[in-house]
Amino acid sequence: MPRLPAVSGRILIVDDDERQRSALAAILSDGDFETQVAADGQEALERLAAFNADVIVADLVMPRMDGFELLLRLKERGDLTPAIVLTGFGSMEKALSAVHDLKAFWFLEKPVEPRAFKALLERAIRYKRSLQKTDELQRDLSLRGVLGDLVGTSPAMQRIFSLIRQVAPTSAPVLICGESGTGKELVAREIHKCSPRGDGPFVAINAAALPEALIESELFGHEKGAFTGAMERSAGCFEQAHGGTLFLDEIGEMPPSTQPKLLRVLEDLRVRRLGGKCEIPVDVRVLAATSQTTGTHLREELYYRLSVFQIVIPPLREHKEDIPPIADVLLQNLNKKHGTRVTGLDAEVLDLLHRYDWPGNVRELRNVLERAAIVTGAGLIRLADLPSPAFGAGLGRSAQQSPGHDGPIVLRPGQPLMKLEEAYIKLTLDHVRGNRKQAAEMLGISLRTLQNRIAALREEEKTATPRS
Q1: Cβ proximity of 57 and 95 under 8 Å
Q2: Distance, CA of 332 to CA of 339 (rounded, Å)
Q3: Three-state secondary structure call for residue 9
Q4: Can you tell me the distance from the alpha carbon of 420 to that of 397, in angstroms, rounded to the nearest whole number?
Q5: pTM
């Protein structure tokens, strides 16, 4: 059996005999161990306040505070650091009592044999690491439910987790529906990871982000010379995802001319590159996603083929009880990304997050928290750290003012829909500082749809403006 790799760790040696302390420390001096020493249990507790030990090595018989009292104190405060007790000749019964009653990791008889000492320390360190992983997993489950980056303890999210667990082991196509920013790709990735294909590739393509002339080449690949600019053979997404999962995002925005070709591939599991003469078999599971407002853009037969199993993700406004754990996880990730030390949300901020309706869903929440985390730097996020005018004026009122906008949006009967749409698009673009991709995500439409609507509104303005 191959030997486990050596481990490193921090060791606290507790013994009233100075020669014994020094001898034990010397045994560990030639390895990857960091050691500190203490003369009795009281000094050990003081050391542990600043020294995060992986293992405690303690004599049982010491003045002031002996090994038994030290282990008892650690047990009472819930300290899970494994302890190895040292016992002299004739005191084996005491050592066994420490192991059984006070949950010491194990014992060693004096004089200590160096190889046995190191081997036992390595076992104890691995045990400590496993306890830490278990503790982290329990905390993770309490925050995220049960599935990776998906967070939620509400009944709505627990149902999503249950559906993922049901469908993941199968090969059935899944249509994931939900507003922009709800986490459709996260659901797709969790289905892939929990499936037998989890070790295979996960390939994602956004049907709305590609020009119509390129989407077939991206999906099915092309041969050299198939069209102008095709300088070499290229494998499409179906070939790249062979043995794994292909995720088709914004499937409702796929050009109508491409949909029958996609349906043919789904039925036959064979692709022909553009300009190619032969069909290539592929072993691919297809997951697709669409916003609920664009699902009707699919051809009926393609819709039925993709929606053998359907998962509908609720918008954030329908499970606001998940905002605290979602924010918690987002802030942990943002701290790692930006080197910040944000510890949480002020009570007023949390109340404001609950009152806001989150048209951009979790993606918008993340953007708000990212900006606030950078502004805050460390400690709690407070109201002054939140972006303005993302909140405040838009909460529970009929009007919202934003910089660069001519005036508030006021809902009145009889207003032309075109004017309301124009004002709302302008408001959203102002909020994201002109970022059209982000505005489209917040509005729940594709970038292509947003650009078309902006162009149409401009054309309407030209038509409505009298010439001088």
Answers
A1: no
A2: 10
A3: strand
A4: 16
A5: 0.56
Neighbours of 411 (CB within 10 A): 8
Provide CB contacts within 8 A for 220, sequence distance 6+.
236, 238, 261, 265, 271, 272, 273, 274
Distance CA 228, CA 235 (A): 17
Q: Report whether the peptide linkage leading into residue 260 is cis, meaning its omega lies within 30 degrees of zero.
A: no
On the question of a cis peptide bond just before residue 111, with omega within 30 degrees of 0, the verdict is: yes
Residue with tokens 């009653």: 101
Confidence at 408, pLDDT banded by 50, 70, 90: very low
Amino acid making up residue 334: L
How far is Cα 114 from Cα 51, in angstroms, rounded to an integer? Answer: 24
Per DSSP, 295 falls in state G
Contact of 293 with 315, CB cutoff 8 Å: no
Q: Identity (one letter) of the amino acid at 317?
A: R
In whole angstroms, give the CA distance from residue 14 to residue 28: 14
Contacts of 427 (CB under 8 A, 6+ apart): 400, 402, 405, 409
Separation in Å, CA 419 to CA 317, 401, 405: 26, 16, 13
Residue 293 has pLDDT above 80, yes or no: no
Across the range 233-238, mean pLDDT stands at 89
Question: d(Cα 440, Cα 370) in Å, to the nearest integer?
Answer: 19
CA distance readout (Å), 144 to 60, 138, 139, 336: 43, 10, 9, 18
Tell which residue, 175, 172, 170, has the closest CA to residue 195: 170
Nearby residues of 310 by Cβ (< 8 Å), 6 or more positions away: 174, 175, 176, 177
- For the sheet containing 33-38, what is the strand order? 33-38, 9-14, 55-59, 83-87, 106-109
In this predicted model, what pLDDT tens digit does every residue of 57-115 receive, in sequence order? 999 889 889 988 999 999 888 888 899 998 876 567 777 777 777 778 888 888 889 98
The SS3 assignment for 200 reads: coil
